[in-house]
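Support reply, case 0932

Customer input (verbatim):
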Amino acid sequence: VSFADFWAASYEVRLKMAQEQAVVGKVKITTGDITRTQCTTFGNVTLYPEQEALFRRIYKDIFVDRLSSAILQDGETGSGKSFIGAFLIAQHIKDGALDYNKYPLRMLPNQYIIFTPKNVVEQYKRVLESIGLGKLVRTRAIYVTSYSQFSTLEGKVLVSEEEDMVTDNTVMKWNPMSRPLVLIWDECQKLNNGKT
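Our regenerated output:
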């Protein structure tokens, strides 16, 4: 039995384990009646039912119902967090977010920005390529970069620092022409240190 066969056959066990741990918006995620054939496919990748349930819930809460502008997707290593993030972008685009006739400024680069550790940048690009978004990565409509790049001159193109006179803190503000539609902080626990 290959690992892929084992993984596909074990989704019910993995879902049960995930349900015991995962809460989104204080609501448990369940697959309900989602079967493998009802799962979303982009490119040559199809989500597993437990990923599908989470993908649908996040998409609905963020992009449809606009219940939140941010969400934390907490999952084990190998649970498909990068794929869910990529599918959220793909669905957003499929639903017309980059309709240049309706939104001309969305022809600008960096509409979707993914920050990730340096050693994960190429892997995340391969995930996006596998679901059919490679051209948008190459043209930088989807920009995958590392946290370390953000702290260089490249980051200064995206954001500017301003001093908050009331709190005496430095505040980062998006430069108007580089503000993304969607921003993903992959492995965001790495941002825990305020000095980095």
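We compared this against your earlier run and they match. Two observations from our side: Residues 21-27 have pLDDT under 50 and may be disordered. The chain is about 35% helix and 15% strand. Please reopen the case if you see a mismatch on your end.
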